[in-house]
Design brief:
The protein contains 3 helices and 10 strands, in the order βαββββαβαββββ. By secondary structure, it is α+β, with helices and mostly antiparallel strands. Strands 1, 2, 3, 4, 5, 6, 7, 8, 9 and 10 form a 10-stranded mixed beta sheet that branches.
Length: 135
């Protein structure tokens, strides 16, 4: 598995972008994306070392990140890994006591590539992203 990004939940993308600019000194950002399947707005930020941060803001009250914002838990939300075979990687994680948080599904932010989320035995979320030849 190859680290793809670190997911940060923010109330609004503009707040996250401002934080990344002013506090982390980041200057490279993607265009915002609405993912209706995940029910979130997403923007990617990149540092000089190539680390990618995914800023995730709710697209409604009932989206998956709303609970994190309400409780202020899991705001450093997930570690995402690009994998060559999502089914094989998912099976491996299940064998290592990671609990699937739902089935794999396409993600707009990754050009329709399949993604799947798991709760690790340590309590953080792991996202798998199916590698595509374009990325």
């Amino acid at each position: 598995m190859k680290l793809h990004h670190i997911g940060l939940v923010v109330a609004e993308l503009e707040i996250g972008v401002r934080y990344c600019r002013e506090t982390l000194g980041l200057s490279r950002f993607s265009e915002p994306v609405l993912d209706p399947l995940q029910r979130v707005h997403i923007c990617f930020a990149y540092d000089e070392a190539g680390i990618c941060y995914e800023l995730i803001a709710p697209a409604g009250e009932d989206c998956p990140v709303s609970q994190a914002l309400r409780t202020r838990h899991n705001l450093l939300n997930h570690l995402a890994y690009e994998v060559a075979d999502i089914a094989m990687a998912a099976e491996r994680l299940r064998g290592q006591r990671h609990l699937p948080l739902g089935p794999s599904q396409p993600a707009i932010a990754f050009g329709g590539a399949q993604v799947q989320f798991f709760l690790s035995p340590l309590g953080h979320i792991v996202e798998l992203i199916q590698h595509t030849h374009d990325s």
